[in-house]
Design a protein that fits this description.
By secondary structure, the protein is α/β, with parallel strands linked by helices. It has six helices and nine strands; from the N terminus they run H-H-E-E-E-H-E-H-E-H-E-E-E-E-H. The protein is globular and about 70 Å long.
């Protein structure tokens, strides 16, 4: 087989080598898709739980807090009352709070009867999660719940965090951003 490699002209071999290296680097970059603070937030649209159409690009000029969560997330159960108090503190300010879940409307509505959440909720958001989730070296999704992303007025990620007791850091990021 190696004898036949030399049957390609040098220009073709150069193109094949560059193509192969590009594919390897692209696969590596895709497998560890980490959104960094300062990077543009991936745009998305969807339908909220109340049936309203939603588009992140239409919120330019406002600060947007995006929370990824699940009804099965025990940390989310504990964090949502804190998040609700935080949301009330930003009432009347140019801050929009969104909560995205991969679960369907029926499951989310049943959950919300016992665990209210004071945000706009976008169910069925798996495609959006794919844009925001980190990936490990094998390409598997890596996102802790709840995950918070703060998008500034120009559409860039200003803050990101996940896990237990992150509302104080979220509040600090919002205060800092709104005081600019």
């Amino acid at each position: 087989i190696l004898k036949h490699v030399n049957c390609f002209p040098p220009s073709t071999m150069k193109i094949l080598t560059i193509t192969l290296l590009t594919l390897i680097l692209a696969a590596s970059a895709f497998s560890q898709n980490n959104l960094k603070v300062g990077a543009p937030a991936p745009a998305f649209s969807g339908v909220t739980l109340d049936g309203s159409d939603f588009d992140l690009n239409q919120l330019r000029g406002s600060v947007v807090v995006i929370t990824f969560w699940s009804t099965r997330c025990e940390i989310c159960h504990v964090e949502f009352p804190k998040l609700n108090r935080l949301i009330k503190g930003y009432d009347g300010k140019k801050v929009v709070f969104l909560s995205l879940t991969t679960e369907n409307e029926e499951k989310v509505e049943a959950y919300l009867k016992k665990n209210p959440l004071e945000t706009q909720i976008l169910p069925n958001s798996f495609g959006i999660l794919l844009q925001y989730a980190d990936r490990d070296k094998n390409g598997n999704l890596d996102m802790g719940y709840p995950s918070y992303y703060v998008v500034n007025e120009t559409g860039n990620i200003e803050f990101r965090s996940s896990g237990y007791d992150k509302t104080p850091a979220l509040n600090s990021a919002l205060t800092r951003l709104l005081s600019k």
